[in-house]
Amino acid sequence: MPTALVIAAHPDDGEFGCAGYAARLASQGWDVYFLVTTNGAKGTEDRAMPRERLIAQRVEEQREACRRLGARDVFFLGFEDGELAYTRELVERIVWHLRFLRPQTVLTHDPTDIIIRDSFINHPDHRATGTAALDAVYPTARDHLNFPEHLAAGLEPHKVREVLLWNSNHPNFDVDVTDLVDLKIHALSAHVSQFGKQEDFAAFSRERWRNDDGRYLERFRRLDLQF
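The structure assignment produced for this chain is given below.
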């Protein structure tokens, strides 16, 4: 079966970016996995929430969201939320998962721009994750000379064939997820620490994602890697 890997900076980012398409792939028999780079430790407005409890809760919320989408598993790198830097270590950890899971398709943040659609700032953790994911896809995971310890552990080089970047200023690939928007909201609602107090979350989300024709789209910048 083909495999897809969603690489997200924080718990819930992957659901916002591609939950509909990820669920569709899973329903079509794909093995869908999630990889979350940070620990989500900054994701609360509750000043009484202990840090370790929040981290543990966000892990469980992400696991439940993935279960609702039909994903096979989710992995966590555990880097500090809000402080993620582009490092060789971050690239290596992503390369390890690429070589271990061997996805045909990778879905992740578009790191290209700081300002997205003149409406919000692209979080620095998103930019670091997207940049490291792209560098991991090409050229790092393909070259056997990068991280030779992987070879020693039985992990061979791997070539990803397709990359889909969400929250892009230059989308060229639209996926109609009208039939899956309820599932997308259901997956996001698993993140109780983020949206549990927002009673109008579903209505707000529907309005935000609906286009002028009344359809719901997930839009990506698609890269078809030919070599």
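Interim note for the steering committee: The mean pLDDT is 94. Residues 3-224 form a domain with the Rossmann fold fold (CATH 3.40.50.10320).
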